[in-house]
Amino acid sequence: MRSDAVDIVALTRALVDIDSTTGREGDAGRWLADYLRGRGCAVVEQKVDDGRFNVIATPPAVGADLGRPSGSGGASSAPTITFSTHFDCVPPFFPSRVDGDRLYGRGSCDAKGILAAQVAAADRLWRDGETHVGLLFVVGEERGSDGARIANDAPDGAMSGSRFLINGEPTDNRLGRATRGILRFKLRASGRAAHSSFPELGESAIDKLIDALIELRSIALPDDPVLGRTHYTVGLISGGVAPNVVSPAAEAEVMFRTVSDAAQVRRAVTPLERRVTIEHVLDVPPVRLKTVPGFDAAVFPYTTDIPFLARWGEPLLFGPGSIHVAHTADEFVSIAELRAAADHYVTIARALLAL
Do 274 and 307 lie in a common domain? Predict the structure, then answer.
């Protein structure tokens, strides 16, 4: 392994300066894989599609035991702990800059700074002789978690014997107690077109859709003592063909942030089917998370790759940065918080290894 310690700021900036908005992760994946090989890791580039791949890394002894190319001999069991996050990010891309304690750039907070802190933590543990630690960095988290789904379907030899998964998302360096799930619907209304001067000859799909959305406001949705009450957003509405035509079709897309099994929400909204048809688009369940003593813990209303990585061990959620600045036009992360996160990741890992 390389004798120099990981430079968290330099690593974060190098990754931020490569455009890896979802669908364009190939260059960042190749750079990251080469960087980890340069530090002595055994690396697997796990194909997701023709241009993108997940990056799986272990210290050389672990890599040799898993039957992968390795820079040295030795034998060890599969990792007990896997640090994981994603290296795709939302558009638009903009490069890094440092202003005081803040490192700006797309993905600096979500989640390339987190990735750098995890690499630094793993490197420190490996230097101390703890080889039961691996890394899993995936593509596609921002749009459907296709990288995580591929990683979860990997053969047992690809580190899926890991006992604990420490997933990284912006949590202000707090452990997560739980995360909400997602349930996405399309509500579709059908009508009959007519000239707007004779509305009685037609049937307005837009009116039906509006009535359904108003009814949705009065429906009681599931709640939970830890996660709170289910809430939703009507994110998209479309319909009609012209201002002077009674609309023949209309639809809305609704995103629920769930606190229960999705079936409970589906049952609650069944009365809407008198007015519209309901297409179920996406279902990501809420997750209860493991914590360790000594850290503040909180519930987070967003979802992560964790529901799609069940084979990678009991999940924890932790990372530097605030979700409030992720995806924003001036996304940033505190450099001090990044460096503290590496220390915290080491502490969490040691607590888990002692169990």
Answer: no
